[in-house]
Amino acid sequence: MIPSKKALDNLSYKIMGAAIEVHRHLGPGLLESVYQKCLAIEFKNQEIIFRQELKVPLEYKGQRIDTEFRCDFLVEEMIVVELKSVSELLPIHQAQVINYINLLKVPKGLLINFNVGNVFHQGQKTFVNKYYDALDPF
């Protein structure tokens, strides 16, 4: 089944709800790996289907390149979720998510920074690409 923009937006909302729940319990200031482990538990609790530490493929001029690129989560084969615990999100963090969604050929990516006071208002950025643009709105 091909998802719609609305379905992806609803899934994004569920993902952010899970991230907010983790942040509500832990607060800011911990390592990214801690948030990742706890978010995996929260995804399972909320029955969100995901793959963790997914190796991101890279092809150069028709040849597969062995890299160590790994996205933190690929949720329901449609949304890359990349976690950070940094004082501020930098352009390189955004480029990472954009590259991952393009390399994995998925329509949407979420960049979540847990090292903030409010994850929803200060710690999230959403990225879409041509795969998202091609989806039906509803």
What's the structural blueprint in terms of helices and strands?
Elements: H1 5-26, H2 32-45, E1 50-55, E2 58-60, E3 63-65, E4 70-75, E5 79-84, H3 91-104, E6 108-113, H4 119-122, E7 124-128, H5 130-133
Parallel strand pairs: 5-6
Antiparallel strand pairs: 1-4, 2-3, 4-5, 6-7
Give your account of this protein's structure:
By secondary structure, the chain is α+β, with helices and mostly antiparallel strands. The protein has one domain (5-133). It has helices at 5-26, 32-45, 91-104, 119-122, 130-133, and strands at 50-55, 58-60, 63-65, 70-75, 79-84, 108-113, 124-128. α3 links the parallel β5 and β6. The model has no long low-confidence stretch (mean pLDDT 96).
Helix content class = 40-55%
Spell out the helices and strands N to C: HHEEEEEHEHEH
Tally of contiguous helical segments: 5
Number of strands: 7
Number of domains: 1
Q: Which residue ranges are poorly predicted, with pLDDT under 50 across at least 5 consecutive positions?
A: none
Kindly report how far apart the N and C termini lie.
Answer: 13 Å
Strand content: 25-35%
Main β-sheet description: 5 strands, mixed
Strand arrangement across the biggest beta sheet = 1-4-5-6-7
Overall pLDDT score: 96
Could you say which overall geometry the principal axes of the C-alpha atoms support?
A: globular
Derived from helix and strand composition plus strand pairing, the structural class reads alpha+beta
Q: Radius of gyration over alpha carbons?
A: 15 Å
